[in-house]
């Protein structure tokens, strides 16, 4: 999946996850990106469908290693 097919919000969430050395909660991502928590949660769901993000444990997310 190329970066070009991502929305600005998806890119922001993905960048926040990539720049972190640990899995993040939606609230952590919202804080670091300045986005609303609800929007972050919706965006994570979208990124999960695209296979770019996974959940290593409940309520935590990380970038898929592909």
Automatic annotation (TrEMBL):
HTH marR-type domain span: 6-54
Chain segments carrying region Disordered: 1-29
A GO molecular-function annotation: DNA-binding transcription factor activity
InterPro entries in alphabetical order: HTH_MarR-typ, WH-like_DNA-bd_sf, WH_DNA-bd_sf
Residues in the signal sequence: none
Matches recorded under Pfam families: MarR_2 (PF12802)
Protein name: HTH marR-type domain-containing protein
